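Notebook entry, structure prediction.
Reason for the run: the old model in the group folder had no record of what sequence produced it. Starting over properly, with the input documented here first.
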Amino acid sequence: MAASCVTAIFGGNILMTPQGEVIINWYRASRGNPLADLARTTNAAFAYLKTNQIRRAFLSYGRSRASQVKNSLFRTIVRVTYPSYLRRYFQLCPGSKQEYQRWLPIVAAARLSDEIPELDGFLIEQVEKYL
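New structure, fully documented this time:
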């Protein structure tokens, strides 16, 4: 939806457009280069694989056997499927792998502002790796 189509914003989460109301609930919504979004997703996936840190909504925290199995399964899914996801992304979407790789250190540096101390070492390593 083009920004010029939006006629009013109500309640913070409802856009009034000529086609009708659109409900949104985006945290930090923005418009930019899709390869930057892909780089952020890559960064999050590899940060999780290296540090086990991910948003709590997706994982069970604790030492229970069920939590450990769930986390292990999720790690395996990410490790196995993410390379296929990247290949398919570049088959379907415009943009070069070189441009995508230029975004990786930028996104890692920006994520340092998220203030997740457990990720700081990983993020700094990523910035240095790609620069």
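Summary: The chain has two domains: 1-30, 34-130.
The old model has been moved to the deprecated folder.
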